[in-house]
Amino acid sequence: MGILNVTPDSFSDGGRYAETGRAVEQGLRLAEQGADLVDVGGESTRPGAQPVPVEAELARVVPVVRELVRAEVAVSVDTMHAAVARAAIEAGACLVNDVSGGLADPAMAAVVAEAGVPYVAMHWRAPSREMDRHAVYGDVVGDVVGDVTSELLRRVEALTAAGIDPGRVIIDPGIGFAKRATHDWELLAHLPALRATGFPVLVGASRKRFIGAALSDRAGIDSVPGDRDAATAAVSALAAAAGAFCVRVHDVRSSLHAVCVAAAWAGDRRISAPESVVRSRCRKAPHESRQAPNASASLR
Ligand code: PMM
Hints:
By secondary structure, the protein is of the alpha/beta class.
């Protein structure tokens, strides 16, 4: 999944693709580089970010989704708002990626249920401006994995009770959202526990703070976001080897290559059905497989 932030203030690419034409160009580039999905978002969720009015989010996202879909790119919409999800689906988006797992907008589940599209439910505790205060988990090492898994499963229960098909749900541990670096690494090291829930798992680690901290120099200065793609690709390979269904990244090419290495290393023996999209991408030329994923049919 290639990241396309149509925002002035995202932590890594904020402002670069804020204008529709530039955003569409970047979306086409991500697809050409091998993204199975281009994830279009119009609201930054970096720590401390302020909320964006829904009208502004709609104006940023919808024209870009429409243009990319017209160019036959499979598009997901990264939004916490039901109105934006609905408009993006009407414009052709084939998956809703909700970092709040349905907590930010009670109307989200009904929109997704009615459209019947796959839905990413991410682990989330609070809006970006206050999420760092919520990075508190049980005091035993490993509790973050148990807490995140049980909180996610509670969300899935509520979402499916509201009509979303469980066969179309993808879960995401929410790397960097109400998490400290130790929590992020702990969650990544225990991806098989999340996979054991039976749901496909998406990992969004690309260029995030905990990677910058792991790459800090001798003076303790973190690496800058633009210098974190090689480390992100390493995370992508390890996540794929641990059974992740999808990685959400800024630099598609390096992570695609890393995931192809993980697939080749496993000799297909450990790659189960959820990774079929990745496998087909590894075998086909980029233009050959630009199909919308379906969490129940092709991902499970
Ligand atoms: N992270 C961001 C935005 N959307 N979606 C999912 N499913 N998982 C994530 O970890 C995630 C996300 C924030 O990162 P960005 O500013 O680089 O988009």
